[in-house]
From TrEMBL:
Keywords: DNA-binding, Endonuclease, Hydrolase, Nuclease, Restriction system. It comes from Thermochromatium tepidum ATCC 43061. One of its GO terms (molecular function) is endonuclease activity. Belongs to the type-I restriction system S methylase family. This is Restriction endonuclease subunit S. The lineage of its organism: Bacteria, Pseudomonadati, Pseudomonadota, Gammaproteobacteria, Chromatiales. GO terms for biological process: DNA restriction-modification system. CDD domains: RMtype1_S_FclI-TRD1-CR1_like, RMtype1_S_TRD-CR_like.
């Protein structure tokens, strides 16, 4: 990492979000840097997707949901290699980037072609800085804030920084090299988390299928993949142990900023995901309180214990109510984490995971007595506690390196750090495969679901 040296001299920029710029830099409106490209009718081109962290890339078309997009490709817009494409409704979150190849983006996207003085990779970095995304909000229009759109006519009026083209190229080379180092770090930490998670799953698997008594006698479970279970246990089905209630099919157009919060999958999987709210009345069965067990069955499979206050439950999430005469709440959570791990292999699709309600209810599970459930629950909690602490600490390290990356990018692309004298070292080799580790599956936006807030 290069030392954080400022430029020798600065001048006032006239922009509140970056008060001073290096001498020799300009401020121009985007209409001076980009032209608008609106081209359709290229069905043979690959479909592109956007990551909030890494920009635009070619989509993996393997799962069923993405295959359904094929019939809509005539409506999709062409983005030539090097064009900037952004999601009108999600640019304020960083849904913008430079097209790596000629491809197609959703009709909900704006495509702009850079003029010669603009390196689209530099602007891809600039446009995803926090300061610039706040400016996007000011230029966006809509009925409510979270439905605002940044149209081309507004985008072209926005002011942007313009370093000399050679400096733009140098900034891109420097940031890509730093991204390579950061991506390697993140990849190593993710591999550690994967190993720890596998270790935790082995502990859970052993406890909920074999019990804690090393001298127990076993019997055939009658299920090939499960094998034997303790002879005094029964084998039941999920639907006989708990009621599971699907969330309410809210319409995103009905969401607002007041009322009771709506729990969407991102509110379970992402710590700081914002809520949408609903003021109307829906069935009480969709009311969620602290301590309720929630199971997401689409997009991101997982079981969670809710602890963020009264809320409404959105579709694609089950509220699970265990039968206290058959299974304890705590034991059900561990059991659910075990059987979800097995069910993932049978879920429809590779990225957009999905479990049907009949499949969920018919899944066979080994079941000890209530007393033994309590013992197993305490054992798993005790044996996995240290693993959880290490996973949490490792996840925090990833968050910190991401925060460092965001600060570094902001400082470099706004000229607060001078990298003109930087030269790549032997370990600054960059590959797109390595940079992919910067991405985050939760940060991806599907072009056939253009950020409308729905699951």
């Amino acid at each position: 990492m290069a030392a954080a040296n400022p430029y020798p001299s600065y001048r006032a920029s006239g922009l509140p979000w970056v008060p001073q710029l290096p001498e020799g830099w300009q401020v121009l409106r985007n209409g001076r840097l980009f032209s608008h490209r609106v081209e359709t009718g290229f069905p043979d081109l690959p479909i592109l997707e956007v990551s909030l962290r890494t920009g635009v890339r070619v989509r993996d078309m393997e799962n069923l949901k993405r295959k359904q997009v094929m019939s809509q490709k005539e409506k999709y817009k062409r983005a030539a290699k090097g064009d900037i494409a952004y999601n009108m409704m999600r640019m304020w979150q960083g849904a913008v980037g430079s097209a790596p190849v000629d491809g197609l983006v959703s009709p909900a996207y704006v495509v702009v072609k850079p003029y010669d003085e603009a390196n689209s990779h530099y602007y891809s970095y600039l446009f995803r800085t926090a300061a610039y995304m706040q400016e996007v909000n000011k230029y966006s229009r809509g009925i409510v804030a979270d439905r605002n759109r940044l149209y081309w006519e507004s985008f072209k009026q926005m002011p942007s920084l313009v370093p000399p083209r050679a400096e733009q190229d140098q900034i891109v080379a420097y940031l890509r090299a730093q991204d390579a180092h950061i991506a390697r770090f993140i990849k190593a930490k993710r591999e550690l988390i994967k190993l720890l998670t596998e270790q935790k799953l082995r502990i859970i698997d052993q406890a909920v299928t074999r019990g804690l008594d090393p001298n127990v006698r076993f019997k055939p479970s009658g299920i090939d993949w499960l094998g034997e279970v303790p002879e005094h246990w029964e084998v039941s089905k999920v639907k006989l142990l708990a009621d599971y209630i699907n969330g309410f099919p809210f319409k995103p157009a009905e969401w607002g900023a007041k009322g009771r919060p709506i729990i969407r999958i991102q509110n379970l999987t992402k710590e700081h995901a914002p809520f949408n709210y609903y003021e109307g009345a829906i069935p009480e069965r969709n009311h969620v309180k602290n301590g309720d067990i929630l199971l997401s069955w689409s997009a991101s499979l997982g079981v969670f214990v809710w602890n963020r206050g009264d809320a409404w439950l959105n579709q694609h999430i089950f509220k699970v109510v265990p039968d206290p005469t058959r299974i304890t709440r705590g034991y059900f959570v561990w059991l659910a984490r075990w059987f979800l791990n097995h069910m993932e292999a049978e879920a429809h699709g590779s990225t957009m995971q999905h479990i049907t309600k009949p499949k969920f209810g018919s899944f066979p599970v080994p079941l000890p007595s209530l007393d033994e459930q309590a013992e197993i629950e305490a054992h798993i909690q005790r044996e996995t506690q240290d693993i959880d602490l290490v996973i949490t600490r490792t996840e925090d390290e990833i968050k910190l390196i991401r925060e460092y990356r965001d600060r570094l990018i902001a400082d470099v692309v706004t000229g607060q750090v001078d990298v003109r004298d930087w030269q790549p070292g032997h370990d600054d080799v960059v590959s797109d495969e390595e940079l992919a580790a910067l991405g985050d599956d939760e940060a991806n936006l599907s072009e056939d679901e253009p950020g409308d807030g729905g699951e």
